[in-house]
Amino acid sequence: MRVLIVGSGGVGESTAAIAKRRDPRGELFETMVMADHDLARAQAASSRLGDEKRFPAEQVDASNVDAVVALCRKYDAEMLCSFLPVEFNPFTLQAALKARVHHMDASTTLSVPHPTDPFNQSGKVLGEDELALGAEFEKIGKLALMGFGVEPGMADWYCRYAADHFFDEIDEIGVRDGANLEIPGFKGISFGFSIWMTIEECTNPAVVWERDRGFYTVPPLSDPEPFYLPEGIGWVECAHVEHEEVVHIGSFEKLLKGVKKATFKYALGDEFIQAMDVFTSLNLHSLQPVNVKGVQVRPRDLVEAAAPDPNEIGKRYVGQTCGGTWVKGRKGGVEREIYLYQVADNQESVALYGTQGVVAQTAFPGVIALELLATGKLQGYRDNPAAGVFPAQAFSCDDFVALQKEYGFPGGVLEMDSDYKRMRDRGALLAPLQGGAA
Fold this sequence. Notes:
The protein is α/β, with parallel strands linked by helices. The chain has two domains: 2-105, Rossmann fold (3-Layer(aba) Sandwich), CATH 3.40.50.720; 154-357 and 409-432, Dihydrodipicolinate Reductase, domain 2 (2-Layer Sandwich). It has 16 helices and 19 strands. Strands 7, 8, 9, 10, 11, 12, 15, 16, 18 and 19 form a ten-stranded mixed beta sheet that branches. Strands 3-2-1-4-5-6-17 form a seven-stranded parallel beta sheet, with helices on both faces. The protein has a two-stranded antiparallel ribbon with strand order 13-14. Strand 15 (320-331) and strand 16 (334-345) form a beta hairpin. Helix 3 crosses helix 4 and helix 14 (357-374) crosses helix 15 (398-407). The radius of gyration is 21 Å and the shape is globular. It starts with a strand and ends in a 6-residue tail after the last strand.
């Protein structure tokens, strides 16, 4: 497969590094073009990958659709991967349509809050504009794989896996994310992932879905609750954050055994939440330009430029990050709760891929999806066509799960009971995800 990666930052470089480790001779991933608006960054990524012929560097302005199309044609690309700030997704989606290639992103198109009641009613939800392009991708016979990172992405695969193997009926699905990452001796706030997107998620109204109510919103970082994360991380406090999985579950609920509710909650820590409060109180989260000594600057862009680079400071983290999907329902008439998860150790990721754990964890599901597509194993469910716009849960999940361990990112299952503490004390019920029923 010939792939054009637009955005050679952490996720883009991690994608290529994981693909190279999986396929060192290029038999599966023949070419991965490292493109970026900053040619020096693309060249640095290409150089670190150690094969500038297989991973050539290119400069491109992603907002210039024709320029992206020209790169697709120059390299005869079959897949366009957009690993950019999500405000560029509309441009890369149009480029993929014009070049007649597949498209994949790690985050979907942006939401637009309700104009008068943003903290109760949903406006335009995440990915709505992307889903609307389904008929256009069907016409060209190509797929747009929406949100194929870890969250969204792996978490969506796990929604499907839980429905297929662990439940007869599902009441609620909640994606839960947290970590015990720290930088020894560092004082202050650091971003472990895209600064721009983290501020977007943590200051926008958070979306919730219920079968009887549809999509609605709640205040960001509201309704905190304790949640137990496995493999030594322990108890964290998770709160509502805007995220795509909720939209994917609500939009594709027919595949998920009658699910009635979907949420996303993230454990950020008291210091980070306080920082978000400061940002919003000072309007530093805003995308409305302000005049700074005669120069128009968006406050959020200023924060992103001034804060430590997540790709670099993230390499100093010690600890683990966990992403996963919590599901509650019934199997054989018996109530059950499970948490399907993946834990990445930051220092191991730095040693193996040269990138920090959060971005490596974000990159691996997309590389698996590329392999499944290249080998003809990315199979849709029931009447789903082989073209259109779909999240991960719309595809057969067993092949994805089977490849996790081979890629070095094994998954796990935590079976929960009503007393988390008692279960933790007996060591929890950890087991690797397998392809069969449970």
